[in-house]
Design brief:
8 helices, 7 strands, alpha/beta, binds nicotinamide-adenine-dinucleotide, 7-stranded parallel sheet
Length: about 270
């Protein structure tokens, strides 16, 4: 059956869709916010770093898009509720949530404090849960005809060991994979699709911070073996385009899927 250019473009467009991207002040989240704005979405740039979030929002507005920066620590329930109130007051609903914000400091397994373990899970696991909970509540009120799409950003480390001193991080993201599958099954009847992406190594501001020469934070482990990343390191845009796919009508028959976007790491 022939497909018109119009139909092809519509598969990857999200015109006037209302989208929250957490951690959108930097790296993969920032690239996703810019790509979503090009694809027609109205954005909430949600980040703990409000100055950087405001810069991203103003760049989007200057380019002709719609964006609002909101300060939030996603691990705090009242702050997440305030974020969704700000979204509702500004746009009146939600279509897309990208759970991208994360805490990533490395820690020696045998020396790790309970506080470090807890902070990792408070941000990456509880924060993802809180944002999903508030988004799904709103999406259900809007009705199954409108539905919604949620994209959780996990890590390839949740599927295969990659970097040492990262057990707390991989644990927090493995929980995200589990939440993604179970919530997808639970809310499919409400027209809400929930998928996750497991990135391999990506050149971002956060990744650069790890190259500080410190014995614990500098990446070591299987992923650092020469040639192990078959396609090398990704750019943030290479991840953002996969996120747009999962948020757009092009993936309308996908839910509960944990998709590796890893430059071939899992088959290498
Ligand atoms: N970069 C990689 O190589 C890589 C690999 C695998 C997975 N990931 C995942 O991709 C996502 C983005 O990674 P990145 O490298 O672009 O990160 P980054 O460090 O460049 O940006 C993360 C953003 O999240 C924000 N943030 C941190 N804690 C927050 C909190 N509590 N509340 C709200 N915002 C908070 C930061 O201010 C920052 O703007 C993360 O979920 C990360 O775990 C990245």
């Amino acid at each position: 059956m022939p497909v018109s250019n119009e139909k092809l473009n519509a598969l990857f467009a999200i015109p006037s869709k209302i989208a929250i991207v957490t951690g959108a002040a930097s790296g993969i989240g920032k690239a996703t916010a810019h790509l979503f704005a090009h694809a027609g979405a109205k954005l909430v740039i949600a980040d703990i770093d409000i100055k950087a979030a405001q810069n991203v929002a103003s760049d989007i507005i200057t380019a002709g898009g719609e964006a609002l920066a909101v300060a939030v620590d996603i691990s705090e329930e009242t702050q997440v509720q305030r974020l969704f109130k700000r979204l509702f007051d500004a746009y009146g609903g939600i279509d897309i949530l990208v759970n991208n914000a994360a805490y990533r400091p490395k820690a020696d397994f045998l020396e790790m404090s309970v506080e470090t373990w807890d902070r990792m899970h408070d941000v990456n696991t509880r924060g993802t849960f809180l944002c999903m909970r508030e988004a799904i509540k709103l999406m259900r009120i809007q009705g199954a005809d409108r539905g919604g799409a949620i994209v959780n950003i996990s890590t390839i480390g949740a599927a295969h060991p990659t970097i040492f001193n990262n057990t707390h991080y991989d644990s927090s993201k493995s929980a995200v994979n589990g939440m993604t599958r179970t919530a997808a099954a639970e809310f499919a009847g409400d027209g809400i699709r929930i998928n996750a992406i497991m990135p391999g190594g990506v050149h971002t501001e956060g990744t650069m911070k790890m190259q500080d020469g410190n014995a614990v934070s500098t990446p070591k482990g299987p992923i650092m073996m020469p040639g192990r990343m078959l396609l090398g390191m990704a750019s943030p845009l290479q991840l953002a385009s996969a996120i747009l796919f999962l948020a757009s009508p092009a993936s309308s028959f996908m839910t509960g899927h944990i998709m590796a976007v890893d430059g071939g790491y899992l088959v290498g």
